[in-house]
């Protein structure tokens, strides 16, 4: 299984907001994250980068 950690980027600050994310759903400026255990989080922003070799997705905060 391939899970990634999600980083929220606010200016120069990087904050890990969720680990072991299995699904990312983008609807406009809302991004819904779903973890492997079914936990969910919705953040406002846009995806800057998804890097599978580092196992992370970076979201630019709005």
Provide keyphrases for this structure.
mainly beta; five-stranded mixed barrel; 74% strand
Can you walk through the features of this model?
The chain is an all-beta fold and 62 residues long. Helix content is 0%, strand content 74%. The protein is built from no helices and 5 strands. The N and C termini lie far apart (30 Å). The mean pLDDT is 96.
Topology readout:
Elements: E1 4-10, E2 13-27, E3 30-35, E4 40-51, E5 56-61
Parallel strand pairs: 1-5
Antiparallel strand pairs: 1-2, 2-3, 3-4, 4-5
Report the average pLDDT across residues: 96
The number of helical runs is 0
Main β sheet profile: 5 strands, mixed, barrel
Spatial order of the strands in the main sheet? Answer: 1-2-3-4-5
Secondary-structure-based class equals mainly beta
Helix and strand run: EEEEE
Radius of gyration, in Å, reads 11 Å
What level of helicity do the residues show? under 10%
Short summary of the structure?
This protein is mostly beta strands and 62 residues long. Helix content is 0%, strand content 74%.
């Amino acid at each position: 299984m391939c899970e990634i950690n999600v980083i929220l980027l606010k200016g120069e600050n990087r904050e890990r907001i969720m680990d072991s994310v299995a699904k990312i759903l983008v609807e406009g400026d809302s991004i819904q994250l779903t973890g492997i255990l079914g936990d969910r989080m919705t953040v406002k922003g846009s995806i800057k980068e998804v890097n599978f070799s580092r196992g992370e997705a970076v979201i630019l905060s709005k």
